[in-house]
Design brief:
Blueprint (H helix, E strand, L loop, with lengths): L1 H18 L17 E6 L5 E5 L12 H13 L8 E3 L2 H4 L13 E3 H11 L2 H12 L2 H14 L22 H11 L6 H4 L3 E3 L8 E3 L4 H4 L3 E9 L3 E10 L2 E10 L2 H18 E7 L4 E7 L7 E5 L4 E6 L7 E6 L12 E9 L2 E10 L8 H16 L2
Antiparallel strand pairs: 1-2, 1-9, 3-4, 5-6, 7-8, 8-9, 10-13, 11-12, 12-16, 14-15, 15-16
Helix pairs in contact: 2-5, 2-7, 4-5, 5-6
Amino acid sequence: MKRFRYRCLIWFLTFLLAMSGVPIACAEQPLDIESKSAVLMDDGTGTVLYEKNSHEKLQIASVTKIMTILLALEEIDRDRLKLDEPVSISENAASMGGSQVFLHPGEKLTVDALMKAIVVASANDASVAMAEKIAGAHETFVGRMNERAGELGMTDTHFVNATGLPAENGYSTAYDVALMSKELLKHPLFFRWSTIWVDTLEESRNKTELANTNRLIRFYEGADGIKTGSTQDAGYCLSATTKKGNMRLLSVILDAPTTQARFSEATKLLDYGFAGYETVPVLKKNQVIQDKIPISGGKGETIRGIAPKAMGLLIKSGDSKKFEKEILLKKELRAPIGKGQKIGTLKIKQGEKVVQSVDIVSDQKMEKAGFGDYFIKIFNKWVRKQRP
């Protein structure tokens, strides 16, 4: 009877998660995870493979810096920030306690050096210096952090600083940490610093020695990120990622009882994911899905529909790898059409079940035809008819 009740509870919780819109494929038998909260997520699909109290609001300590790093990388991608750009260290930044690289007020370090200090050594002083560089003031930057969190669907998160130092009303969840970690991994430049084991901050006045706080980088095959954190109230926290073959997994641990526990339990989740699941490649980024799609009213006659991103099909190990593609284009495509504009949907099906879908986008810009363009089209058609 107890076993029946337990199964009913598991089915009910699974139903609630499914209704929330979160893709799930959780473990049939609970893993022995001692930490208060945990999530294992497939990076490619966002599917949750394991969760424990994944939406419980907790302090996350320096795991907060994932958002700080993400905003900095987005500024770099937009060419608003250069790696070799100097950053002057303020009194405020230099006064940060906790983990730091002992920066001095008035000294200047490049963006590259500060990012290395943040990612490798979890430096609070470097984090605040970067926040001030990007937004002008630390408080303004925190506002941006919360705005970006909202855009990513991090509904159970509130940031109060760029460091994760203890402060009232600062919290997040394992699931939200997985969401922002997943977004961070879209920026390959991150791995420039996250895979460093030991280094020296040569640009700093103190020539501070750096050691990566994430020991999985050294001791777990394929591990290449992301961020640790710990305070007395937050416990020991970790967002870790590893790629093996075609599959990348995210393992988030919050409020572990010891530093060893966060690494061992993250390892346990990663091992479980790689043993139980695999990713079947479906599409490469910019792969042509449909060629010669007719366009009405354009300067040209056709465009190509491509995949805006790579896509893989997540399956349980041993399950069928067979799938079918169903292309659904918009009924009437008329110019103007922008490059990257959605023009249809590709559905991936196993049997009658749609297991995944992706937008089909235009590979080029198609401008609306003018009078002269129509004249040229008519003339070209006439020329073709004259050919034997």
